[in-house]
Amino acid sequence: MKGLYELIVKRRPKSPISEAYRSLRTNIEFANLDNNMKSILITSATSGEGKTLTLINLAVAMAQIGKKVMIIDCDMRKPRVHKALETSNMFGLAEYLMDGGDIGEYIKRIDDLGIDVMTSGRIPSNPSELLHSNVMKNTVEKLKENYDYILFDTPPVIPVTDAVVMSSYVEGAIMIIEHGKVDIDLGRRAKDALVSGGTNLLGVVLNRIPVNDSKSYQSYYYYYEERKAKSV
């Protein structure tokens, strides 16, 4: 099934692509030696660049070394986390932000992956306003008490403001750039927008670089440059 196939770190742990995810995890760990960075936003410049795929495999890679990890799908416009994890999206972040209640009721445990997830819930009419609320800001701070890492999947930076809104709540951000899709000027605009939100841009994942090895089943390569994204 497609969702399970996307969990390459679990299904093909010895593959080069899984090793790339582990390298990404290691770079984040080195950047977080003081354990003061728990909230990380994953976004992209435009849609379809692989941000959700990267986020989920990174979360699983972190859980595999004993980290307590949670995913929150903040993309309340085109959510994909529930599809990739093949779990229900009947209720989630949107319902929590609108209706309140015990946050634990909105969190699902994915036992075989060792991670927790809050899916997006139903698509609201005002996603930016919900993310901009004090409830969302306070939720990020509250969850940091219980997790080693919280990874936030947000919409792309260029089309909407959601990622920039969330960037003011988190301690780090990683931007996904698809090889050959995003030009330098667009990448710079996305980077500048994130930085203007006050977050620390940890780096860039350069995604979907063609591999010339015909024997390789995978067609993507992930590159992570710690702290500074020189390519944009």
Characterization of this structure:
It is an enzyme of class 2 (transferase). With 232 residues, the chain is an alpha/beta fold. It has a single domain (2-211, 219-224), classed as Rossmann fold (3-Layer(aba) Sandwich). It has helices at residues 2-6, 8-11, 16-31, 51-63, 81-85, 93-99, 127-131, 134-143, 162-167, 184-196, and strands at residues 39-44, 69-73, 108-110, 115-118, 149-153, 172-178, 201-207, 223-224. Helix 10 (184-196) links the parallel strand 6 and strand 7.
Evaluate the radius of gyration: 16 Å
Widest sheet, order of strands = 3-4-2-5-1-6-7-8
Low-pLDDT regions: 213-232
Number of domains: 1
Strand runs, count: 8
The major beta sheet can be summarized as: 8 strands, mixed
Q: What is the name of the CATH topology?
A: Rossmann fold
**CATH level 1 class label:** Alpha Beta
- H/E element sequence: HHHEHEHHEEHHEHEHEE
User: Which structural class do you get from the secondary structure elements?
Assistant: alpha/beta
